[in-house]
Write a structure and sequence with these properties.
This protein has 298 residues and is an alpha/beta fold. The protein has 10 helices and 11 strands. The chain has a 6-stranded parallel sheet with strand order 3-2-1-4-5-6, sandwiched between helices. The protein has a 5-stranded mixed sheet with strand order 8-9-10-7-11. Helix 5 packs parallel to helix 6 and helix 7 packs across helix 9. The longest helix is centred in the C-terminal third of the chain and has 17 residues. The chain starts with 5 loop residues before the first strand and ends with a strand.
Length: 298
């Protein structure tokens, strides 16, 4: 069987490590997705690779960045790919052209602003293409259920990239949590420095927010620990504002968002638990870590 072809949709930090002015200053200076795909192609696990953005004008700089920081560092690893749209065009619907160039059984990755996940994934699924979507899968439950139904209808895999599940420390904690007895309380915190607002300036506060972006990790971790026994029944939220706006980001951008979630035991609603999930992208600069993250469960 020939290896499947893969189209990477989204050309930003997580895919390429390129953020418009050069390599990201975060821990993803050479990206994650493209580097992985280039290595999988080297090992014969995937076939042709393509990449989609909304502006083709970025691709010459992206290719130069990948050549310098990946190919010239990792034994001339092949970093070639077919790009959509072409280098002189801009097209927010270029993903359709790229997906149409694939065959049923091929795959795409989606690392784009949250509001775009649903239409891109739906277009691919309906054409028999397997899909990997970064978290959160969608911003609406109705869209999430729609993708689930369409994936079953078209017999394709759709996977949500909640990568904290595979972090060794988190995986170990999830295994240990089974020995704690009934779920009672979960608290989590995850942040990124204010400098990341520059990286995400195009969509921060407009298309999505820091809770979708970071709280989704710990909510998934919590649910993976207790979801078989407990279910969420009530959510309230609070957000702080001001710092992001002072940095030139959209005025409506929340700096920090906290969710308070009430959980009840599925077979005994008299037993309840509380989850508190906080996410922020206004953490101090030079605080020692790029992404501060921890949780407590009892």
């Amino acid at each position: 069987m020939a290896p499947l072809n893969v189209c990477m949709i989204g050309t930003g930090e997580y895919t390429t490590g390129f953020v418009g002015t050069g390599a990201s200053q975060s821990d993803k200076k050479i990206g994650v997705v493209a580097l992985t795909m280039f290595d999988l192609r080297r090992r014969g696990k995937v076939g042709k690779l393509s990449m989609v953005g909304t502006s083709g004008h970025k691709f010459p700089a992206i290719r130069q960045h990948l050549q310098k920081n990946i190919s010239e560092v990792y034994n001339n690893l092949d970093v070639s790919f077919t790009s959509y749209p072409n280098d002189t065009a801009s097209d927010p619907l270029a993903y359709k052209t790229a997906i149409d160039a694939l065959s049923p059984g091929d795959a795409i990755t989606i690392f784009t602003p949250d509001s775009t996940h649903y239409p891109i994934a739906l277009y691919a699924i309906q054409r028999g293409i397997h899909v990997l979507i970064t978290k959160p899968a969608t911003q609406l439950l109705s869209h999430h259920l729609s993708l689930l139904a369409e994936a079953r209808k078209h017999n394709v895999f759709v996977y949500i990239e909640h990568h904290k599940r595979f972090d060794p420390a988190y995986a170990d904690a999830r295994a240990r949590a089974k020995q704690l007895g009934d779920f009672n309380y979960f608290y989590s915190y995850m942040s990124q420095p204010k400098s990341q607002l520059e990286t995400f300036k195009a969509w921060a506060g407009r298309d999505s927010d820091i809770s979708y972006y970071l709280n989704s990790h710990h909510i998934d971790v919590c649910e993976s620990m207790v979801g078989e026994s407990y279910k969420p029944v009530k959510v309230t939220a609070s957000g702080s504002k001001g710092v992001a706006a002072d940095l030139g980001v959209a005025a409506e951008t929340e700096d920090t968002i906290t969710l308070l979630v009430e959980w009840v035991k599925r077979d005994d609603p008299s037993r309840k638990a509380t989850g508190v999930y906080t996410a922020s992208w206004t953490a101090p600069l030079k605080a020692g870590v790029h992404s501060n993250q921890y949780f407590h469960c009892q």
